[in-house]
Structures are given as C-alpha cells and as structure tokens.
Design goal:
The structure is a single chain. This protein has about 350 residues and is an alpha/beta fold. It contains 13 helices and nine strands. Strands 1, 2, 3, 4, 5, 6, 7, 8 and 9 form a nine-stranded mixed beta sheet that branches. Strand 2, helix 2 and strand 3 form a beta-alpha-beta unit. It starts with a strand and ends with a helix. The relative contact order is 0.11.
C-alpha cells in the first residue's frame, strides 16, 4: 500500500503535464501517480503511457472516454491504493521541499495512535504576469504541530476558505462518505473539498507552500470570461453544495459555521458572475439560485441573504449591480484571485 495517491486529471495537457508529473515523481516510492487521460485528442495519452513505462512502480496511466474533470477524479479515487488521496491538476505542480515534509509527517502520523482525516497545507497563486506571488496561508487560523478538531479552528475571513489545492484527504474517508463528482462539469473542485467535510473529525496543518496553482491562461476554466460562458456548470455545483447542508443536522457548531461561510462565498461568486454577464437571462438565474436556497433551507437562506456578501450581491437596480461589481473588483485585487 502506498502512502499517498495523487490523481492528475489530464485533457489535452501535452504542453504542460510533464512539469506537473516530474514534480510529483520527487515523492519516490511512497507515492503512486494516477494520470487519468480523459479522452484527450493530442499526445497526452502517449506521454502518460511513457511515464507509466519508465516508472512502473509509481505511475499508472488510465485512459477513459471524456467525462470531464470530476469524472477523472472519480476514476482516480476508484483506482487509488494509497492511504491518503490528493488531486493535482495537470497545469499545476508541487514544491519539492514542502512535498518531502508532508510525506514525512503523513508517514509519522500513520505510524501513530490517531487517525488523520485531512491534511492541510498552503498553496501559491502562480498567476501569469504577476511579480508578487500570493500565498494562501492558514497559520493564523489553524493550530500547528498537532492533530486538531473543528472547535480549535479560528474563524477565517473572506478569501481564506480551504480549496482543493490545500487538502489531502484520507482515501477511506472519501469512499465512506460516497463522494462522486458530476460528469462533464467544471468547478467541481469545490465539491471535492466541501462534500466530505461533515465526515472530517481530525485535521493537521503544515505551514509549507506545497501546491503551485497556475492561473492566467485565457482558456483556463477559472478565467472570468470562461466562467461566465460556463455559468450553468457553476450553478450546478452551487446547488449541489446547497444540497449537502440544506435540512441537515450538523451538531458541531464550528463545522456548521465553516460550511455556511464556504457556501456564502461560492453563492456570492455565482451571483457576481451572473451580474457581470450583463444579460437579463442571467439576472433571472441569479434570482432562481437564491430562490432555490430559500426553498431548500429557509434558515440558511436568511443567514446568507442578510449577511455582508448576500447584501452586497443583491443590491437593487442597475446602480446596485454596478456597486456589487465594484466591491467584487476590490476584493479580487486584494486577495489576488483570477
């Protein structure tokens, strides 16, 4: 059994996947790298097979019909043999020193008396053209040097929620909670993190800049114009996140608060993208999203709608929408996201 399984979803990734895989190979025999070729039509499959041939004990090439990013993650999870599981997108990479430190700590924890559900580390926005690299760091909010629970986490501000790039899950936990991401859907990263959280009891944080998140290509799914074109997929993810908590009794108040803050942020992002599109159709979709939340759980709706973000993205009229966009731009610049 491997210590860590890393799934690398690949679709037409020939131009950049080698940088990603080469960085993961630094983990040696403790790691298995599952390159999932999601129906690519370029040389991605050939490159994956070449890695599998050269590193037979570490790399496995898996080929499937195109099912989208979520289905590639599903396939990786089904094939994983590691105790822990991580997703690294094919245009991203990891830092060697942080990688070594994380593997050492995971190995130490596995040999100890406690079960770890989720490892958290920092990630760096490798934004194209930016001289200053924004680091998403959690040291002010998470305990260090020990396994901790939800009640020991300090309240995180807007922009500090945990992303896919931050987490390594226990493989068994993902399977036990029944995680299955939707096919042919972008933005499932949030579901990958969000849906298993109610099953997470124990966490460990390492203040190391592990994941390097490349951002800035015009065809990238998180590019604003692309998000607007694919807004229905963002809305599907948003609704599935609502379904994960609506009407559910979550006894741990710290976990519940975190889940609602996370949902608050994602719902605000969806709302802003719909406003930014400038079409009447999408303004109706924004109303429908908030109506969906109200119908699913009136208590969560009231909490989010009357909060700062909910008020900011629901200002009335044309001038109100302009103010919403202006607020978004300030937050965007401050936090450095795309």
């Amino acid at each position: 059994m491997k210590l860590l399984s890393v799934t690398v979803p690949c679709y037409n990734s020939q131009a950049y996947m080698e940088k990603c895989v080469d960085s993961l190979l630094e983990g040696g025999n403790q790691v298995e790298i599952l390159i999932v070729d999601d129906g690519s039509v370029d040389d991605t499959a050939k490159i994956a097979d070449d890695y599998a041939a050269r590193f037979p004990g570490i790399v496995k090439a898996i080929h499937q019909e195109n099912g989208g990013h979520g289905e590639a993650v599903n396939t990786g999870l089904k094939n994983a043999t590691g105790i822990f599981f991580k997703v690294v997108d094919s245009d991203d990479w990891v830092n060697k020193e942080a990688y070594d430190a994380i593997l050492t700590k995971l190995s130490e924890i596995v040999g100890g008396p406690q079960t770890l559900d989720m490892m958290i580390s920092n990630f760096v926005y490798e934004k194209q053209g930016a001289r200053r690299k924004k680091v998403m760091r959690y040291k002010k909010y998470l305990p260090q040097g020990k396994i901790f629970t939800w009640e020991e986490i300090s309240k995180m501000p807007v922009g500090k929620y945990i992303l896919m790039h931050s987490v390594i899950y226990r493989t068994g936990l993902l399977r036990e909670c029944g995680l299955e991401l939707p096919k042919h859907t972008f933005y499932v990263d949030n579901l990958f993190v969000y849906q298993p959280l109610p099953s997470v009891k124990t966490m460990y944080y390492m203040d190391v800049n592990f994941y390097r998140y490349f951002i800035g290509r015009e065809d990238q799914s998180v590019h604003e114009d692309v998000m607007i074109r694919r807004i229905d997929q963002q809305l599907l993810v948003n609704r599935l996140m609502i379904d994960s908590v609506a009407g559910k009794r979550i006894s741990d108040k710290h976990l519940r608060q975190y889940l609602l803050r996370y949902l608050d942020i994602i719902t605000a992002v969806s709302s802003i993208m719909l406003i930014r599109s400038g079409t009447e159709e999408n303004l109706e979709k924004k109303k429908d999203l908030w109506k969906y939340l109200r119908n699913e759980d009136i208590h969560i709706y009231r909490k989010l709608r009357l909060g700062i973000l909910g008020r900011s993205v629901n200002l009335p009229g044309w001038s109100g929408r302009n103010i919403s966009v202006a607020i978004y731009k300030v937050v965007q610049k401050f936090y450095g996201f795309n």
